[in-house]
Design a protein that fits this description.
Strand content: 15-25%
CATH topology: Rossmann fold
Number of strands: 7
Largest sheet: 7 strands, mixed
Radius of gyration: 16 Å
Number of helices: 6
CATH superfamily: Vaccinia Virus protein VP39
CATH architecture: 3-Layer(aba) Sandwich
Order of helices and strands: HHHEHEHEEHEEE
Helix content: 25-40%
Length: about 210
């Protein structure tokens, strides 16, 4: 079994490799989140990844890799599952209003417990289909839960006029780009170097409203 100290070392090394400066209590809170996820996962099957060390890489560091691109006062994380990337981002950069959206009741119950246990201020979770969510957000994150066309078709109404949409993908989604609705435009595609993952395994597509 991997000890918490070993997980902390792996996480701190990864944060250093990403070049991030996080709040003093962020590492402790990220590990608390991971412990909670591991505990609930045994009963609720929230993620297919069981090994805590792999969770550090594939959940925490993967989420933190997009932190430099997050902007604005409000963020919606669509199809968040067990809170990814929304909860790590809320811990790493507190002060933003964060809405976690998922249609799965078990996952939303976990999210609400995580928000309570971790004392995540300004973070709330809703059980809903993306298309039924209301409001507008400065930043929207979505981690590979659908094609770019479907993501924007279901959730495009949530993006504020000057907002940005951060779509986390595995391999470069070249074949999805022609499907981006005309109301939106691709601003950039970044290859993310997630410590512990093979190069070119993660990409971030940055989108915004066309003409804004």
């Amino acid at each position: 079994m991997t000890t918490r100290a070993a997980l902390q070392t792996k996480l701190e090394q990864g944060i250093d490799a990403l070049g991030l400066q996080l709040p003093a209590d962020a590492v402790t809170r990220l590990l608390d989140y991971l412990a909670l996820l591991e505990r609930w996962n045994a009963a609720y099957n929230l993620t297919a990844i069981r090994d805590p060390a792999e969770m550090v890489t594939r959940h925490l560091l993967d989420a933190l890799a997009i932190l430099p691109y997050v902007q604005g006062e409000t963020l919606a994380d669509l199809g968040t599952g067990p809170g990814l990337p929304g909860i790590p981002l809320a811990i790493a950069a507190p002060g933003r209003q964060v809405l976690l959206v998922d249609s799965n009741g078990k996952k939303v119950r976990f999210l609400r417990e995580a928000i309570r246990a971790l004392k995540l201020e300004g973070v709330r979770a809703v059980q809903s289909r993306v298309e039924d969510v209301e409001g507008q957000f400065d930043c929207i994150t979505a981690r590979a839960f659908a094609s770019l066309a479907d993501m924007l078709g279901w959730g495009g109404h949530l993006l504020a006029p000057q907002g940005i949409w951060l779509a986390m993908k595995g391999k470069a989604p070249d074949e999805e780009l022609p499907g981006v609705p005309s109301a939106f435009e691709v601003r950039a595609i970044h290859t993310l170097a997630v410590p512990g993952l093979e190069a070119a395994e993660r990409h971030l597509v940055v989108l915004g409203r066309a003409g804004c």
